[in-house]
Amino acid sequence: MSAKEYVKRISPPDFIDEVGFKTYKLRVRLNRYPESDWIGFFRESSEMKSTEVHPRIVEIDGDEITWTASEDKIPENIEWVDKYISQVNEKYNRLLGKNEEEQQKQEESEKQKQAKLDRLNEKYKDL
Question: Would you list the DSSP string of 69-122?
Fold first, then answer.
């Protein structure tokens, strides 16, 4: 799966409760359950413009994002949710790339160590 597709919104908003005059609790579904690192990056999104879908106040539960919004702001809210998801996917991809690079370095170091031990074992096998 490519980085930009790590997490994506796969549903339109689902109205789950009316909480005030033209104010509703909504949810959107995601294509997967985000990992805790991804959720942490979401909470720290740097483009924090919208107050209704501010990354620190929405609820992320499993594969759903839930928040409360006024009806007239819903299209804007969805746009911001999508922007936050895209931004977080980029950060998360950098983390995954860094972790993969570190793992490859560790594996190479282990191979070199084992090769050295194998050479020493071969060199001194007749002692």
Answer: EEGGGHHHHHHHHHHHHHHHHHHHHHHHHHHHHHHHHHHHHHHHHHHHHHHHHH
- The first and second tokens of residue 107, run together, are 């594996």
Mapped onto helix, strand or coil, the DSSP state of residue 1 is coil
DSSP category for residue 5: G
Three-class DSSP category at 55: coil
pTM: 0.70
What architecture does CATH give domain 3-123? Answer: 2-Layer Sandwich (3.30)
Q: Is residue 51 classed as helix, strand or coil in its secondary structure?
A: coil
The encoded tokens of residue 39 equal 């959720």
pLDDT at 2: 47
Q: What is the pLDDT of residue 55?
A: 82
Distance of CA 109 to the CA centre of its chain: 29
